[in-house]
Predict the 3D structure of the following.
Amino acid sequence: MNIVAVGVSHHTAPIEIREQLAVPMGLVPELLHRLRAEHIGREALLLSTCNRVELYAVPAEGRTPEELVGFLAANSGLKDRALRAHIFRYQAEDAVRHVFRVASSLDSMVVGEPQITGQLREAYRLATDERSAGPVLHRVIDRALSVAKRVRTETGIGREAVSVGRAGVELSRQVLGELSGRSALLIGAGAHGKLVAKAMLGYGLGELVVTNRTFDRASELAAQLGAAAAPMDDIARIMERVDVVIACTGAGRALISRAELAPVMRRRRLRSIVMIDLSVPRNIDPDVNQIDGVYRFDVDDLRQIADVGVEKRKVAAVEAERIVSEEAVRAWRQLQVDGLIGRVGGIARRAEAIRAAELGRAGLTGLDPKQQKAIEAMTKAIVKKILHPSLAQARALAEAGEVDRLEALLATLGDEGEGT
């Protein structure tokens, strides 16, 4: 029994290679079917995202990882040799460890991001629906998802903000608490502003209003975000009721001054407001921080939060790697034991077949039924007594996870396995 992981990721291949290998979700079932129909893999799962295209498979007997590489290349139109500098190949315990690292987001571009776990779960669902995930992949992926949960629970690897969007969320939550039911105003259509707004919506923001110098552009962006659009002239009125203001324009000057914000805050009765200025030059006068209830942050503040998050995730990743390695060793040993247990049963079946064949050759047809039944029972008892000590020892070794000793014992019993 063997498990293989082959493919490319953002670690090994540029986007030009990854996009040629990428498989749209709608075509995954066809590819998995073809992989089995061509007797390349007994089991297979394909994970295709913007950052990776990976095939996890149990090769058919006699098939090699290179044939799986060739299959990926043929499917993409790339020549095998064009992939060789970019492809990774893992087998056995290394393959299991890789799958666990992917599921736990240790192999991601942003370590600790949660999306990859959902993407792996969806790839597993497709493989299960197509019946290309068999007993080995079922055990590996089920365990990988459990390990990912353990990593997130025990290390907190995904808790720290590592992007401008998440940093904006964290700063807002420090002032306001949870964002559920809160409202925000986005001024401008800058990329960072959109990232922060999207992140806040993902954390339960109840309402988002978008303004822009051009109202049509505000309406277009609002439609993309599921928000409402408003003209720039309404900024002061909107600020009276929202909890967060995000400014990200190319105006090159302050759009909100201390003098303009002070009467707004009086009408708010000094209810706290978070103001996130992502523009350079800044759109919100730094002096607004002198008004009670105003918490203004700029892009440097967000970057500091993100940098702290990166460092904390690095510390968490060390512990996460330990967990993954420990779990991979345990899972691979269990997979080996499961395969060997099947061979234990095979020895008993083979002994019974030999016994029956020898009785047939002995020519006992002249015996009456009672005598035949007695000889049948006697020979079965002999076989059972001969095999029982070894088979009992084999099962004890399996329960203890003693893979090497179990393998050696089975070899002495004449079972050499089916090869990997």
Notes: Strands lie at 4-9, 41-48, 52-59, 88-91, 183-187, 207-212, 228-231, 244-247, 273-277, 294-298. The chain has a mean pLDDT of 87. Residues 176 and 272 are 8 Å apart (CA to CA). The chain has three domains: 4-159+313-327, 164-292, 334-412.
